[in-house]
Sequence to fold (240 residues):
Amino acid sequence: MLPPALSAGAVGTIRRTSAVDTVRARISLAADLGLLSPGERLPTAADMAAGLEVSEITVRRALTELQRAGVVERSRGRGGGTYLAKNPPRDAVPQTAAYRADADRVRQLIDERRVLEAGFAHLACEHRTEADLAAMDAAIGEMAATESWASFRRGDEAFHLRVASAAGLSNVLPLYRRTLADLHSYFLPYPIAYLHESNEDHRVMRDAIAARDRVAAADAVMMHVADLHHSMYIGLNRPE
Fold:
């Protein structure tokens, strides 16, 4: 029998939180943990909607409420946009408690993803095509070129899904997509410098798969995904 997170969609505490409140909580928690810098310009509402997998109107409503709470500031006209406040209040969004309450679930999802992706990488070494490698290269290039955490996520998802697809187990892909989607619902905005550094892991994975080195490919993926235990909010301490 499959464990709960593999047999069904996410049932964590955040599933009882509205879409607007999840956006508010993720931005506020990222600010509390220092992942967003005071005064930092946020991506456009459209980019944030794509990166957080919600509607654009949901993002706009969340930003309006965050502005009222003093977490973000908004300006109009040329050069205008939405910025994290220079001194955002801490714990401004009570719904961040739902994310903290789901810490054990996040750890479980990370480990499930780790096992699935190690198997995919191992099999991809045998079944990958030149088209697969080209698609991985395109995703890596997209991530390297972007300066937005929101658009980086799209390239990251494209890369990992291509590795999974290259394994040749199409019947397992729906399970993997559910795991990715459930885990992504807990991701926060990250500094782009950190994301660019993590992109180097993708190059290592791609090269191992290209060389058909099963052990190196699986090890690279295992280390990359295991790092989420430390880099996601469950492994971070709030700066003083």
Residues 102-235 form a domain with the Four Helix Bundle (Hemerythrin (Met), subunit A) fold (CATH 1.20.120.530).
